[in-house]
Every structure is written in C-alpha cells, then in structure tokens.
Known about the structure:
This protein has 13 helices and 17 strands. The chain has helices at residues 11-22, 47-56, 59-65, 89-92, 102-115, 128-131, 147-152, 224-230, 236-243, 284-301, 304-333, 338-354, 364-367; strands spanning 3-7, 26-31, 42-45, 67-68, 71-76, 82-87, 98-101, 119-122, 137-140, 160-172, 180-186, 189-196, 201-209, 219-222, 248-255, 263-264, 267-269. A hairpin with a 5-residue loop joins strand 5 (71-76) and strand 6. Bound molecules: flavin-adenine dinucleotide. The site of flavin-adenine dinucleotide (FAD) has 34 residues, from helix 1, strand 2, strand 3, strand 10 and helix 10.
Amino acid sequence: MLKIAVIGAGVSGLxxxxxxxxxxxxxSVFEKNQRIREVGAGIQISPNGFxxxxxxxxxxxxxxxxxxxxxxxxxxYQNGQxxxxxxxxxxxGKENFRLLHRADLINLLYRSAVSNKVSFNLGYTADAKSLRxxxxxxxxxxxxxxxxxxxxxxxQSKNRRSDYFAWRSVVPNKFNHHxxxxxxxxxxKHIVSYPVRGSDQLNLVLIQESxxxxxxxxxxxxxxxxxxxxxxxxxxxxxxxxxxxxxxxKWGLSSQDIPSNWAIDNIFLIGDAxxxxxxxxxxxxxxxxxxxxxxxxxxxxxxPSKAAEKYIEIRKPRLLRLMKAIKNNAWKFHLEHSLxxxxxxxxxxxxxxxxxxxxxxxxxxxxxxDVTNLNI
Length: 376
Ligand SMILES: Cc1cc2nc3c(=O)[nH]c(=O)nc-3n(C[C@H](O)[C@H](O)[C@H](O)COP(=O)(O)OP(=O)(O)OC[C@H]3O[C@@H](n4cnc5c(N)ncnc54)[C@H](O)[C@@H]3O)c2cc1C
C-alpha cells in the first residue's frame, strides 16, 4: 500500500484517486476550493471515457443521470437548417456515449472517492514540492493553470492564448432538441448544444474565434446581453434558446503543447495539467479519464522511473494524434469565405443523402479505444 497525494479535485484528480484507493492505496486529495464544485454546464462523455467510469464502478449511476447521445446533427446558423445527421449509438454502442451535467459527474466521482476511503483536504492550496517527501507519489491534477506543470517544466510554464473564447450556459429545454449533440456552424463561430438532466435542460457551448489576449484564471461571469448580441445572427430554435439565457460564463481558452516533463521523481502530471486542449472534440475530460486509468495501474505495479517511462510511451502517441485532430476540426467549423462555406455545406448535405454513417469513420480510433483492455 502506497501513500499518494493528489492535487486537485476535478475529473482527473477524483478519478485517479478513486482508482488508486480501489487498488488498496491510501490516497489524500488536496483541493484549493472550500467545496467540491463544478460550473453549471454539460459534458460529453464518449465511450473511451465511459469505459473508465465503468471501471470505477459508476456506469449504472452515470447512465441513470445522463442522456444517450444517439446522433450528431450539424446545422447552418441562419435558420438552423439541417446539413448532416448521423447515428452514433449503432456505431459506438447503444449506451456508451453520454451527455450529462458536470456537477452530476463530479458529484458521482466525489461520492465514489469518499466511499473508497479517499481523504479530502478542502480549502488547501497544495504544492507538489512540499508534499513529495511525505508521499510515495504526488499527482498534479491541478488543471489548465497547473503550478505542478510549471514546477516540472519551468521553461515551458506559460499558457498561450488560443484565439478562441467560449461561453457556457444551461437553459430550459423548450425547443424539442433532438437526443444528441448538435453543432451549429457560422463564420468564425459555432454553438454546440445538447440536452442534459432528463432533457429538461439544454446545455449551450458558444465558441467565437477572436483575438484573445485575456488569459484569465478560469471562468468569468458574463452579461447575458453580451452573448445575445454577439451571437444574434443565429436563427431558428437556437436563436430562441439564446434569448432565454440568464446566466453565462466566459472562458478565454488557452492551449499549450504537451510539456517535455510529464513526471520528475515521484511527481506526475495528469489531465488538463498535462494536456490542456481546445474543446473542439470534447475530449479534455475523456482524456483525463484515460490518463487516470493508466497512471493508477502504472503506479501500482512499477517504481517511479519505470512508471514515468511507460506513461509517456502509452499516452504520448494518442495525445499527439488527438491534438492534431482538434486543430483540423477548428478551421472546418468556422469557414468564413462564402464560397468555401457553400462548398462545404453542399458536401455535408450530399453525405446526408447518401452515406451519413461514414461521418463516424474518421473518429473510430478516438471513441472505440478501451484503455481498460490494454496490457499495462
Ligand atoms: C467550453 C468547454 C467545453 C468542454 N467540454 C468537454 C466535454 O464535453 N467533454 C470533455 O471530455 N471535456 C470537455 N472539456 C474539457 C474538460 O472540461 C477538462 O479537460 C476537464 O474538466 C479537466 O479536468 P481536470 O481535473 O484535469 O482539471 P480541472 O477540472 O480544472 O480541475 C483542477 C482542480 O484543481 C484545483 N487546483 C488547482 N490548483 C490547485 C492547488 N495548487 N492546490 C489544490 N487544488 C488546486 C482546482 O481548483 C480544480 O478543482 C471542455 C472544456 C471547455 C472549456
């Protein structure tokens, strides 16, 4: 049994803590906030993340608390006209792509950690340097502005601005939204919407491409009028949904190359602390779940230097491929020039009429990866 410290109680910290405690270790989580909390927004858990939740023992509860993402719908912004719709459940497993409220996911992960006897130190801003001598391992799960990453990578510590802003809000779902993720694309902007909490609520993620020289700590409250004006060109039922926004938060999205040092001695990075990524494939938390499973196994079976070596060997190729796919998606969503847009929209509509299921093919490597089947 090892004594392990985890810094941060987000998806990565809570999941790795639960998995390590289930493996018999004594785990302490340090969280700087006084309470375990999440923003009011939705989250997509794709099959590659869901298999880790299953391993934690949460599959039933997650299914009860979430909605199955049956199909992806891509629409134009002006009047919400459908461009392409493709079924996902038949390709990815009937129950494995879930849409839920973040607070519900965090609550389930927290309760699982507590029931596995993880101890929590809330309101405690931890630093890995001062914990490293007291614990066999210290895991930096301290998010996008990780001080653990800076400690391990003093040369690469700065976050870079990304030229994207995101706003998140949850509104009443009065709009007969289909049971799945809808992507509504516009020049330099897109909106991702999907139902959560028994379809009573609609999660909205609004993304705008724009010079972004404000890197702020995490999110800021935004005046609803500002986003109603900024996204006023969106019509159809989504335009109506935007009118009902009452609370909204804004993020200046930052991005960062994967750092050189993933681990030094007994200090390891995980989740956004290791690989902050733009949300264009909704993979930050799913990747954090994959990291958590692998790291928990490696720590249990190997001494620190071997665990670090294998961690990079297993995770790096997949993370680099993911980062590349995210970059490719970013520009496709936001086509500005009308000729390119007309061409792309005609292509999507043609695909919709001929072989819509083929739209799943480019992402099978991403979603159909089951980390729990790896021989670690
Ligand atoms: C608009 C948007 C939409 C997204 N949608 C999706 C999606 O649908 N699916 C998906 O998989 N991902 C999505 N993501 C990404 C996902 O939210 C993140 O990747 C994920 O939440 C990261 O979890 P984490 O635990 O690594 O970090 P965090 O959730 O940031 O948790 C870090 C924790 O560490 C704590 N902390 C920080 N420093 C210290 C310290 N020194 N001491 C103690 N505690 C500390 C913080 O308070 C925090 O609680 C989205 C992101 C954005 C911006």
